[in-house]
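@channel sequence for tomorrow's demo:
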Amino acid sequence: MGLTDGGSAGAPEIPDTPGDDDLVVHSAELTPIGDEAYELRTGLRTQRQTAGPSSAAASRALRDGGLDSGDALTTVRERFVEKANMLADACQSIEEHLGVTISSHAAQEDDIAAGLRNASASAEASGLSPSQVRFMEAFGMTPEDFNRPSEQRPAAGLNPAIMELE
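structure tokens (generated this afternoon):
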């Protein structure tokens, strides 16, 4: 699947690669996004702190001068702070989500690799394919369970004497 940015001038095209239709994002690509979210969030804090006192002073001066625009400036300042807080919260969520994503996916990759190594070793020893071993492991079974003759046991709660009727 080839991707472009919708025709922006100078944007590189991502070429088609046969068999490469999966979306792949590496942690090295996610880290800068989290860093940018952090910088935006901390930059917003500075902007809020700078804009707040000067806007409040200006709106008081306008109101004291008998101008209605003082109240309007107060409303604009309040909305700016509200929207800046919402954006800062969203940036913090992005930072946290990307951090969790990177660490959890790394742990999952390690677990999958270890499982495949174990399945491959078990498959070689038992004569089963690795996919058969992985399937069995999903149900808490081992290749030894597959090769062991099954015992006839009554289901829980049934009278064991019923088994003797056969």
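heads up for whoever presents: Residues 69-126 form the longest helix (58 residues).
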